[in-house]
Model the fold of this input.
Amino acid sequence: MAKGCRIVIATMLRGPNPFIMSFSSALLTQPRPAIPAATGDKTMADGDMRVVIAGAGGRMGRTLIHAIAATKGLTLAGAVDAPGSAAIGRDAGELAGLGPNGVKVVSDVAPLLKQADGLVEFTIPAATLAFVELTAAAGLVHVIGTTGHDEEADAIIAAAAKRATIVKSGNMSLGVNLLAALVKRVAQTLDDDYDIEIFEMHHNRKIDAPSGTALMLGRAAAAGRGIDLNRHSARGRDGMTGTRRKGDIGFASLRGGTVVGEHEVIFAGPAERIELIHRAEDRLIFARGALHAALWARGKKPGLYSMADVLGLGDM
Done:
């Protein structure tokens, strides 16, 4: 099985032998070139999309820079990180393990955007709001992989999408977005005799909970049921909680070690349980998804899009 991610669909009946169907998201995509071990000298071709990476010193930023070097049609136009970051002044290619590529990490994104077609960022919510103001003013593509935005921030992003072409998703991988489509369909099929619980686990440096992916899956389940997630969400159970309220969608979050990301949606019904699972094994799946979204968004009219739009899953 190809390295990347798996979706495991398990129906557990009473008895010792669960039926498990597992398939790789790699089967749903065309083969991609391997990421080179150490080369940062890809020549820019005419017509390449020029992309700025924000959060260049972080795990996802470095992974994105690495992935751009192996992605046809994209060129790294700049790399930016927060003022005071240890990455400032360093060569972006060296940070990503490619060797020098001549692109220095800076703290001021505005000059970079003047020579760019788009911005890809996995940063923090406050940074996103600063970036959308600039990308909207310039009418650029903006791919938002950052999670943890509140309703006010989401409203600001939606307003910016009147001038910028924004793709925003709680998760950029093909597998997770397919999982969300499946969750919506299952929730639509099963009534509220099937309790919905969403479990997620991430590394010990993640700062928001539930994860953006868990919330995305929760919204998919709520959409399938035709309910408002904000009014039917159960989080942080502790102590004497009483019995489970019928129709709620529950969330549980774990943090520890170096877990890239694991999500499980459970439909627990009378005498049976259906489990939909996604396990991310490499951050490259998120980077490749984000870069695919950037290329897809190029030339699209301003608006707020999701990975479901990018992948053509809107009708599921």
